[in-house]
From TrEMBL, chain A:
GO annotation (BP), single: 'de novo' IMP biosynthetic process
Name under which the protein is recorded: Phosphoribosylformylglycinamidine synthase subunit PurS
An annotated GO cellular component: cytoplasm
Compartment(s): Cytoplasm
From TrEMBL, chain B:
Compartments, as annotated in UniProt: Cytoplasm
GO molecular function: ATP binding; glutaminase activity; phosphoribosylformylglycinamidine synthase activity
SMART domains: GATase_5 (SM01211)
Pfam family, any one: GATase_5
Protein's UniProt name: Phosphoribosylformylglycinamidine synthase subunit PurQ
InterPro entries, A to Z: Class_I_gatase-like, PRibForGlyAmidine_synth_PurQ
Species this chain originates from: Stappia taiwanensis
List of catalytic residues: 86 (nucleophile), 196, 198
Alphabetical UniProt keywords: ATP-binding, Cytoplasm, Glutamine amidotransferase, Hydrolase, Ligase, Nucleotide-binding, Purine biosynthesis
PANTHER family: PHOSPHORIBOSYLFORMYLGLYCINAMIDINE SYNTHASE SUBUNIT PURQ (PTHR47552:SF1)
GO cellular component: cytoplasm
Pathway: Purine metabolism; IMP biosynthesis via de novo pathway; 5-amino-1-(5-phospho-D-ribosyl)imidazole from N(2)-formyl-N(1)-(5-phospho-D-ribosyl)glycinamide: step 1/2
HAMAP family in the record: PurQ
Length: 79, 224
């Protein structure tokens, strides 16, 4: 079973890398970019019985390692 | 005073901290490999600076889950002293032994220079030889030193005297919230700080401002 975990910074947490990318886009002439937030994507292949079990396991992985929940949110997508 | 320095793949200030401990206490610390599961009988455990696991995922994130960290957490829970410097501070937050997180520097660049620190709390074994408001020189070298904590956590840290050191007025090098350079846990027996006091303990290094931190710790045991 394949899954995708997306980790993003929480709203209100300053993202200096996102800001730098925003500046880079502006320098390239892309107009109308209001904001860029950088995140991470993890493609995980699991040996799980069903989507429910896979999701539960991934949530545990996010809480314990993939995300730092002090500053980051995560979203799980079973593909 | 007996101490141990934990060595992770990618640690690079372990020798520096060992040298500082030897210089100040006269005793060589024991080196402990990250894959070990037990600690020797010591008074202080140090998580050194460096780039454990190449800062993969997040700085300190993988090291914080290393086998030895369970023993370090138990050691801290028993009230004994744990010091994390730079990458060690990042590990302590990642391991949940200290609150908050260390994010990419606001200016995005790696900052390697000397800063001025202000001592905020003197009520801990690490800071007992300082006076409140003392300003002292200390080197820094980091990319992810921008301390962040939510408003409730920050208020708790400030209100209970758990901010140990701040970057002195208008010298914040990384965007750290409230200019925080180092914090204590609730019991005052775990200190995490981004600056490197171990790199300013003898004249050859350009000064001895960092000595007081190690003298505080050694003194805490001499007094006990």
């Amino acid at each position: 079973m394949k899954a995708r975990v997306t980790v993003t910074l929480k709203t209100g947490v300053l993202d200096p890398q996102g800001k730098a990318i925003e500046g880079g886009l502006a320098a390239l002439g892309f107009a109308g970019v209001d904001s860029v937030r950088q995140g991470k994507v993890f493609d995980v292949e699991l040996n799980a019985q069903d989507a429910g079990a896979a999701r539960a396991s991934l949530e545990d992985m996010c809480e314990k390692l993939l995300a730092n929940t002090v500053i980051e949110n995560y979203a799980i997508e079973i593909l | 005073m007996k101490s141990a320095v934990i060595v992770f793949p990618g640690s690079n200030r372990d020798h520096d901290i060992a040298h500082a401990l030897k210089t100040v206490t006269g005793q060589d610390p024991v080196s402990v490999w990250h894959a070990d599961t037990t600690l020797p009988d010591v008074d202080l455990v140090v998580l050194p600076g460096g780039f454990s696991y190449g800062d993969y995922l997040r700085s300190g994130a993988i090291a914080a889950r290393a086998p030895i960290m369970r023993a370090v957490a138990e050691f801290a829970a028993s009230g004994r002293l744990v010091l994390g410097v730079c990458n060690g501070f990042q590990m302590l937050t990642e391991a949940g032994l200290l609150p908050g997180a260390l994010m990419r520097n606001e200016g995005l660049t790696f900052v390697c220079r000397e800063v001025l620190l202000e001592t905020v709390s003197t009520d801990s074994p690490f800071t007992r030889n300082f006076a409140k408001g003392d300003v002292w020189r200390c080197p820094i070298a980091h990319h992810d030193g921008n301390y962040f904590a939510d408003a409730d956590t920050l208020a708790r840290l400030e209100d209970t005297g758990r901010v140990a050191f701040r970057y002195a007025r208008d010298t914040n090098p990384n965007g750290s919230i409230n200019d925080i350079a180092g914090i204590l846990n609730e019991g005052g027996n775990v200190l995490g700080m981004m600056p490197h006091p171990e790199n300013l303990v003898e004249a050859l290094q350009g000064g001895t401002d960092g000595r007081r931190l190690f003298e505080s710790i050694a003194g805490a045991f001499a007094a006990a």
